[in-house]
Specification:
Elements lengths: L1 H33 L13 H10 L3 E2 L7 H12 L6 E14 L2 E15 L8 E9 L5 E9 L9 H9 L2 H36 L4
Antiparallel strand pairs: 1-2, 2-3, 3-4, 4-5
Helix pairs in contact: 1-5
Length: 209
């Protein structure tokens, strides 16, 4: 009875440990798998990698878009036009995101991200791009950033690197060790029980009549 209770206690502790490690793994690796990447934009979007860098800075996530109004489009065009001396021309379709913006560092805000292309002549195929975040409710400018569009830059989601990083993460390694120990202990218990059963059968077979 005591042995069975002890086994149940160790089993419960093992399950608690596995659950804690699984939660740690999820919290630790979720940002890696949900971070912004080029796939958020249409193929060939100008300034996509500059936008990705900005989106990662604010911890952005894709959002269910609110209706895009003409007031939002006009506000974005105005912000892009005054972002620098020569301004930027809107290009591509905006995307709806949520993020932590400078004016509200403690709360997620929903916004539309507009990308504008610089009107200056590109230097070595690199041109400036403007990024403007327009509030999805009151059309105010939450943030405005100037970046560079480098055609050679790559910001696609790297599945191989993400898998390698997750597999080598401390919680994953600890989960593997925990499962390995659990399998080893379970095998030892099974072998011990089989031996005891065999010994009892042997003793019964030699019991004098």
């Amino acid at each position: 009875m005591g042995l069975s209770r002890r086994r149940l206690t160790f089993g419960a502790l093992g399950l608690i440990l596995i659950a804690a490690l699984a939660i740690w793994l999820a919290v630790d690796q979720t940002p890696l798998w949900t971070a912004a990447h080029a796939g958020w934009f249409p193929p060939g979007q100008v300034g996509a990698c500059a936008a990705v860098a900005s989106l990662r800075t604010i911890g952005a996530a894709r959002a269910k878009p609110q209706p895009l109004t003409s007031e939002m489009v006009d506000a974005a065009a105005s912000a892009l036009a005054t972002l620098s001396d020569r301004g930027f021309m809107p290009t591509g379709d905006p995307i709806a995101v949520t993020g932590m913006f400078p004016g509200s560092p403690d709360a997620q805000r929903q916004a539309w991200l507009f990308i504008g292309i610089g009107t200056t002549t590109p230097v070595m195929s690199i041109r400036p791009v403007g990024l403007v975040y327009i509030d999805g409710i009151d059309w105010t400018t939450l943030d405005a950033v100037v970046g560079l569009d480098d055609p050679a830059a790559r910001c696609d989601f790297n599945l191989r690197r993400a898998l390698r990083t997750t597999l080598l993460a401390p919680p994953t390694l600890l989960l593997g060790i925990t499962f390995g120990i659990g399998i080893l202990v379970g095998a030892m218990l099974f072998i011990g029980r089989a031996r005891r059963t065999r010994q009892v059968s042997t003793m019964k077979g030699h019991t004098p009549l």
